[in-house]
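Protein Record: Sequence and Backbone Structure Tokens
======================================================
Tokens: labelled as protein backbone structure tokens, with as many entries as the chain has residues.
Task: work out the structure tokens from the sequence, keeping to the layout shown below.
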Amino acid sequence: MNEKAKLLVDGTKEILNYLRSKYRLYHLSNVFFRDIHYGLLSYLEVKGMKSSYAEAEHLTLMWISACEHSGVFKRVEGGAWMLNYPDFKKPAVKPAAPAKSAAGAAAQKPAWGVTPVRSAAGSSSSANPQTTAAAATVAEAAKS
């Protein structure tokens, strides 16, 4: 095994962390061959090891095979694998706060201190005598 292959096989955890910094890798997510291939090409360059495209492709296949053997990758289809790496689990998302009921929201006064008046059409307006009278007229017209 040459120096590059040994670096890749022995540094799986470091490589996965590097790939995670470049791509969205999560536990049980799909990972594609070209993403891994270009990620490993970049990783080798960072380590000061130049690699041709074809050589990096061969090294990628070898590294993926080693990861499959160790259980880190599980083949899904031709060029895709599922990442089985619990360290990369997404953080738990807290459920959203329950919404306020419509009755509670309607009873609250708006910030400007004027109590809205609901017309028959359902629109609200500020409580002044003219709009209150207009709302009453609309309500009477709707009844008849």
The chain has two domains: 3-88, 105-143. The chain has a mean pLDDT of 80. The chain has six helices and five strands.
